[in-house]
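*** Fold description ***
***
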Amino acid sequence: MSRTVTHTFRQPPGQVLEAFKERSRQNGIHFTGDERSGRASGRGFVMAYRVDGRTIAITVRKKPWLVPWSMVEDKLKGELSVCVHGANASANDTPTLPLRTTQGTDHGLH
């Protein structure tokens, strides 16, 4: 089963994506792709991302079985919040625009 977290932001897409990639690299996640779509993997995770306008969709295709989905979703939401709101944001900050999570969908990310 996969899960997708989406976030709409006001900043330029490339700026948010680069900040997210850098924070993820610091946690052992490696990316391939460009400003529109790509893949990421590391530490037992396999993900895909797609940027459409000012919305990013991150689909987690594989995760370590010991890590609950709620933890994965919370971490992604927190990291996106920090990337959008800056280093002073915390994982518990409420994003300016909505974050959504969907289960079992891949939003065309193959």
Residues 38 and 49 are 5 Å apart (CA to CA). Residues 69-85 form the longest helix (17 residues). Confidence is low (pLDDT under 50) at residues 89-99, 105-110. The beta strands are 3-8, 30-33, 37-42, 45-52, 55-62, 99-103.
